Amino acid sequence: MFQAMGTHGPNLSPQASLVLDLLLVATAFLLLARPVKRPLNEVLFMATLVIGVSLIRVVMAPLPNVQPVTVATLLVGAQLGARRGAAFAVLVAMLSNAFLGDGWWTIFQAAAWASIAVLGANLRLLVDSKLHMGRAIAASLFAAVWFDVLVSFSILDGTIGVREFMTYLVNGIPFDLLHMLGNLTFVVWAGAWFTGILEQEPEANDLEFTVVNTHAIDG
User: Fold this and answer.
1) What parts of the chain have a pLDDT lower than 70?
2) Cβ–Cβ < 8 Å for 126, 196
3) φ, ψ for residue 216 (rounded to 5)?
4) Which of 19, 118, 154, 190 could pair covalently with 105 via S-S, beta carbons 3.0-4.6 A apart?
5) CB 46 within 8 A of CB 88
6) pLDDT at 36
């Protein structure tokens, strides 16, 4: 299963990577599944979000630990709910790591971003459909540290003790600060704009209401 030790944890064999990707896709599917069939435009909207944010992450990869996905998942969770936010996080982790490098750490990144989406869904970051900047800034700074700590557990392969792990965390503080600075920049610069884009997605109830009214008028 494990081939070697990478920067963020054990590298996976091709077979294990395939199993991991299938597991992530199945997780996203379960999170998005519901009794009522999702409209095509809702599916396309989510796919566009995933591809767009994944591309931004890949392009910004040369900047050390600047993670635009963290703020994106926080806001997607706040606007679209915990389930769709978590599914978004899982798919972005899988797709972007297909270019940046897939490994054991992908599970931890997906789980950390998914938990941040759930956090965003429960913090009331939106007030009267507008982003509450103070709460968003505080949440984005906390999310940076939360993400980095959770992903750090990916290096534990049975050969690293508590002292080595604590040293790893301490050495990572400068990267945590870069992540926090990046999150602060993203949320202040583009948070309101991104939330506005998410707000344009038609809700299922709105679509059903429109369809019912249209049929009533036609009848």
Assistant:
1) 1-13, 34-38, 201-219
2) no
3) -65, -40
4) 154
5) yes
6) 57
- pTM of the predicted model over 0.90: no
CB 126 within 8 A of CB 138: no
Three-state DSSP at 211 gives: helix
pLDDT value at residue 77: 97
In DSSP terms, 12 is beta-bridged to: 2
Q: Of the candidates 52, 56, 29, 45, which has an alpha carbon nearest to the alpha carbon of residue 79? A: 45
- Token duo for residue 184: 């602060």
Distance CA 184, CA 173 (A): 16
Non-local (6+) Cβ contacts of 106 within 8 A are: 20, 24, 93, 94, 97
pLDDT at 5: 47
Q: For residues 30 and 125, what is the distance between their CA atoms, to the nearest angstrom?
A: 26
